[in-house]
């Protein structure tokens, strides 16, 4: 059996194109499982997985939990809001206490960039990064590329634009790494204040005009404005942002080609996307959610074999 080249999934930066293809092929098999009447396999029956979330999450957390249960793993959920972290317990103490309960894998979301990397150097369990600050969100990038592959047949050679708040987005960084490893051309588009200074060093095109970006691309992955991560004002108002960077169905229909519309969620309807665009035939947003479970099943299954 083919194996991943890594023991942990800390970021797309740390894995190879072959790793990504292996995850996709494994996810194809699990997607078949998810469409059967009995959606469960006993693959991880003897594995205990802890979901350790120090930040709020709905889709990612539910998606991981469902993936774990579909694989028949034992699952425990930890949320920092009602935990001893509020009493001053350190990250390492928290995790070591969880591991003392004989946990094999940890799925972790944390507001500090590098937190999962720090843990991976101190504990024996496999770690999956479910988002670390503004750094990476590897499973989101994998499910996004997997969804493009499913819709367009291949990622290689496709033109993908990521639109919106690139500066505060861990999804953008992971997507750039994944798309480039799979042979896509990548562009970022947004207000200058929401583009990182180093962005061109990542080998991506930069476009400030959303209309030109849409005319260039095959796929538009639209990000929300991450107001909760912004310590200062990066643009005058949401209304002004929508005026210049909001996408509606009329704009999509006026292009001289069909493009694929994506969004990692949650959507701020009426800001970056109008409802008629989000719900249009261009959109594969709900396919992304469905594919998220298959991708996370694949990642957990492949990492478990590295125990």
Automatic annotation (TrEMBL):
Highest rank taxon of the organism: Bacteria
Any one GO MF annotation of this record: amino acid binding
The protein's annotated pathway: Pyrimidine metabolism; UMP biosynthesis via de novo pathway; (S)-dihydroorotate from bicarbonate: step 2/3
UniProt entry keywords in alphabetical sequence: Pyrimidine biosynthesis, Transferase
PROSITE patterns xref list: CARBAMOYLTRANSFERASE (PS00097)
One GO process term, biological-process aspect: amino acid metabolic process
Annotated catalysed reactions: carbamoyl phosphate + L-aspartate = N-carbamoyl-L-aspartate + phosphate + H(+)
Enzyme class name: transferase
Binding residue positions for carbamoyl phosphate: 59-60, 109, 137, 140, 265-266
EC id: 2.1.3.2
InterPro entries: Asp/Orn_carbamoyltranf_P-bd (IPR006132), Asp/Orn_carbamoylTrfase (IPR006130), Asp/Orn_carbamoylTrfase_sf (IPR036901), Asp_carbamoyltransf (IPR002082), Asp_carbamoyltransf_Asp/Orn-bd (IPR006131)
All residue ranges annotated as the Aspartate/ornithine carbamoyltransferase Asp/Orn-binding domain in the record: 157-303
Residue span, Aspartate/ornithine carbamoyltransferase carbamoyl-P binding domain: 7-150
Similarity comment: Belongs to the aspartate/ornithine carbamoyltransferase superfamily. ATCase family.
Record function comment: Catalyzes the condensation of carbamoyl phosphate and aspartate to form carbamoyl aspartate and inorganic phosphate, the committed step in the de novo pyrimidine nucleotide biosynthesis pathway.
Stated name of the protein: Aspartate carbamoyltransferase
Organism annotation: Pontibacter indicus
Phylogenetic placement of the source organism: Bacteria, Pseudomonadati, Bacteroidota, Cytophagia, Cytophagales
Gene name of this polypeptide: pyrB
